[in-house]
Amino acid sequence: MSQRSELEREVMGLRRKTSPEADERILADVLAAFQEAQPRGMTVRGRVAALAAVAAAVVLLAGILIGIGIAPRMPEGVTPPMVSPRPEVAVEEKPAREAPPTPPIEHKPAATRTAEQMFTERDIEGLLKMVGDKDRELDSKLTAAVYLAQIGELDTAEKLDKLGATSDDKQLAVLLDAIATQIRDRLGGATHTVEEAVVYAGVVTDEAGLGVENVIVRSEILYRGRGQLAKHEADTVTDSAGRFEMALPQSGDKRLFVFDHPRYAFAWWQPSDISREARITLLEPRQVAGRVIDDRGRAVADAGVLANIARDVRYPNMGKECFLRAQTDSAGRFVIERVFEDARLRISVVKQGYAAFMTAGYRDGEFAVGAGDGGLAFALGPGGYIGGQLVRKGAPFEKGGIIVDCNGPAGKAWGVTDPDGKFEILGLAPGIVDVMVRDEDFARTGLACRPLLDVQVYRGTRSDVQLEVAEAVRVTLEVVNSVTGEAVGGRDLKVRAVGAGTTDEIGQWRFNAAPGEYVFSTKEWTGAGPEEVEHVFEVSPGAAERLVEIAVAERPMIRGALVDEAGAPVEGSVYLGPAEGRTRGYGIFEIPEPNYVASETYVGYAFSADKKFGRAFLWNAGQKPGGLLIDVAPLASIVGRVVDASGTPIEDLAPKLGVVLPDGEMREAARPRWETTLQGDGWFRIDGVPTGVAMAVYFRSLKEPTVLQIPPMRQARVVEVGQIVLDWMGPAGTLAEWDGVLAGAVINERGQPLAEAKVTAAVGSRMFFDYTGLDGRFAVTGLPKAEKVSVSVRAIGYAGQSFEAVVDDRPIEVMLLRERP
Amino acid sequence: MLEDKLLVWKAKSGDAEGLRGIYEKYKDDLLSIAVALLHNLPDAEDILHEVFVGFSSDINDFQLYGSLRKYLIKCMINRIHDRWRSRLYEVREVERTAERPSQEKRPEEEAIEAETAERMTAALARLPFQQREVVVLHLLGDMKFREIATLQDVSINTAQSRYRYGLEKLKAVLESEFLE
């Protein structure tokens, strides 16, 4: 036992006590529930006897619990339990909740004293006799038994066993068993050589509560909880009162009991570690029936139909392992008999040469089939299957009950090895799968199986595989940041045909593997965004452990600081692409790198918290690593006026502000943070413009020659851009005359109408658009009549189309083709 | 073990004192664990209440195999899980418990101890629930990692690493608190 740290001891000292009020409240309810649970009709005599026994036991118990011993002349190391000569002391300790007449206890000291004497004299035989004496008071027997526990020998334990087996009093038998166990424990574990049997018992009744006789109770051993692997163990039948009892050897595996009576539906019970007593109610039987056909509608004979019954409130102890089976006849028909009423089921159909079919079940959270469903029809597609064997060092590895999994585009299925280590996995579609053993029980043996990747499954034939078993190597994958070398915790990863997981706080994830090559994958930062990246690593034989360090690219952070012109830190926010970040003291900020296209330059903005200072800056991927020092300056304003060629001011036309990159390319501001106001008579004003880069004012699009460039500004000021003359690019006439309509329909390659397609008609710099309805129709209104317009049609998942059209009354039809990935 | 058998036997023979004995014997243990897990005294008392009422209604079907204490802890954990799942619990300010003054300790000792306990409970509450559960069950519930692993339905290694991380975090939390 390792030494506890101080911290651990401190946690251990975290003891609390219930308040007397809570005790009172809880005990009142506990005792009420207890009274409720008592079988009615207990005779008054029985009650009195019980109370008498109880009072004595309390005395005895108080002695044991409090641990006050008289301990005169005791054998070495043995402390006798104190049996208080004054029972009222113990009685005082319990609050007088119920007020039963306290039974007279005067007769007891004599009996207990005798037991005491026997104890001090180590008279084991005498004590045994006392325990076995039918005429003795229960409490004397108890006292004797407790003494026996302390001084009994091995043969005493055996005698106690015998006594317990022949006793009519079941409770006493339990107690004697406990005492025998205590003796054996005291004398050391070596005496536990005999395999102990476990007794399961219970009563089976019908819905009226009457015991059902002659119910076959079948116990099955479950392999790791997958039901088809239940191995029949033993049978018994219920007696006339519906009772049964089975003594079965201890088993590390779970047991399932099936209750089978031809007049009733099947019932199941899975005993827990705590309860080995069953109360089973048999319900009315129902059927589930249907037909299995192939993809051409022909009946499939001899297909296995498996019904998995959902855990039900009626059988809360039934595991997921309850199955009923059927097979299709020559007409493809199957009937699952004796399902209990309103059971929910998942049905799977398996037949060699076909892909398996399964209705919704546990994973889907809903069971598709109900008891009583009669006209089910399942169609099986053609498929293949895998057969194989486990081998170790070239020889067959003969071990049954190992689960072999199979996963891939061809489907998910599993099989189990027979005692020769052979297995078959049915129900796969043609295609590729990985075959592996992920059986946890198998993993505990210290062995592992190398997974087989990309096993081809053919239609209707068997693919043979051999799975190699080897000593497992404990593999620790350690994921580190490829730049900083720091451990990356919380990282989701996958090892193909092994499993998926998340790295822990120290960047590690562990698994057992057979030597071989494995594929590790995780999402990594590629600059253009996270992408699943694969790494191959080798687990070589020989070593018991292997540490694999895998360096992954994490999304880098851009670190920097905001300062004013004097170099003093400034608090504020920084925007770059979709990312933004705030400074966290001393003007220092950290923002994630944007998803970038290599070598492209990005425009960023920084603003002080009071929105009075700011700076625009350029960033590109080549610039890293290194910090960004951004010196903010007062924000600028841009003022100007826009007129047409005749000098008439153009109203309601807002200017836009773009950024001019060093190579002359112009970029729209992605998320402008400045304010544009129109002041009438063609005047506009843009406030809050960060300085530092060359900017451009434009009206239509950056490609059109209405751009006015402003060189990098260093100072806070109002930049007057003067009068901007715009050429009117649209057709002649005024807006009032624009009442033409461009109408038509958008269809896909199969001629079906395409909804939600956007149809845009451009007239010069003006855009008009409409979306198609469910019928694929659209109508773009407000267009100049008889003029040529540029039309573009776009829909998600389809290649867009652009063309020119004349606005007239003739409808147009546009066909979009599906986009090729 | 034998005492437990006796108590259960008594309760099963229709004697309320057996039940009372079980309650008296284990209530403080269970309450300590519940408070450490839930960080809240009224909820912990509710759970304690539920566990014992449930236990006493089913006493007739109950068979004791193994440790009664662990059985009761398991019952309690299951109930806490149920509640946790239905998100009845959030981390709340721990409510000060009205500790009964015990005879052996002087008031100032008592105050210091209560303060330490409060600090520790508050620190525990900042652990992820699963880590907290392992730490509490192992140290307060005296349970083996194997048992905790079964309870949490995870491997024994996971339970152990949860314990390790839990302790590390607990230490970090306590230290940072100290600095503040």
Q: What brief labels describe this structure?
A:
heterodimer, A: 821 residues, alpha+beta, 5-stranded antiparallel sheet, 5-stranded mixed sheet, 54 strands, B: 180 residues, mainly alpha, 8 helices, 73% helix, 0% strand, globular
List the helices and strands and how they pair.
The complex is a heterodimer of chains A (821) and B (180).
Chain A: H1 6-12, H2 20-37, H3 44-66, H4 87-93, H5 108-120, H6 124-132, H7 138-151, H8 154-166, H9 170-186, E1 197-205, E2 216-222, E3 231-237, E4 243-249, E5 254-260, E6 267-269, E7 277-281, E8 285-294, E9 304-309, E10 323-327, E11 333-340, E12 344-350, E13 357-358, E14 369-370, E15 376-380, E16 384-392, E17 395-396, E18 403-408, E19 411-416, E20 422-428, E21 431-437, H10 440-443, E22 447-449, E23 452-457, E24 462-471, E25 473-481, E26 492-495, E27 499-502, E28 508-513, E29 516-525, E30 530-539, E31 545-552, E32 557-563, E33 572-576, E34 579-582, E35 588-592, E36 601-608, E37 613-620, E38 628-631, E39 633-634, E40 636-644, E41 656-660, E42 666-668, E43 675-680, E44 683-689, E45 694-698, E46 708-710, E47 718-726, E48 740-747, E49 758-763, E50 766-771, E51 777-783, E52 788-794, E53 801-806, E54 812-815
Parallel strand pairs in A: 1-7, 8-15, 16-24, 25-31, 32-38, 40-47, 48-54
Antiparallel strand pairs in A: 1-4, 2-3, 2-5, 5-6, 8-11, 9-10, 9-12, 12-13, 12-14, 16-17, 16-20, 18-19, 18-21, 21-23, 22-24, 25-28, 26-27, 26-29, 29-30, 32-35, 33-34, 33-36, 36-37, 37-39, 40-44, 41-42, 41-45, 43-44, 45-46, 48-51, 49-50, 49-52, 52-53
Helix pairs in contact in A: 3-4, 3-7, 5-7, 6-7, 6-8, 7-9, 8-9
Chain B: H1 2-12, H2 16-38, H3 41-57, H4 68-85, H5 107-125, H6 129-139, H7 145-152, H8 156-179
Helix pairs in contact in B: 1-2, 2-3, 2-4, 3-4, 6-8, 7-8
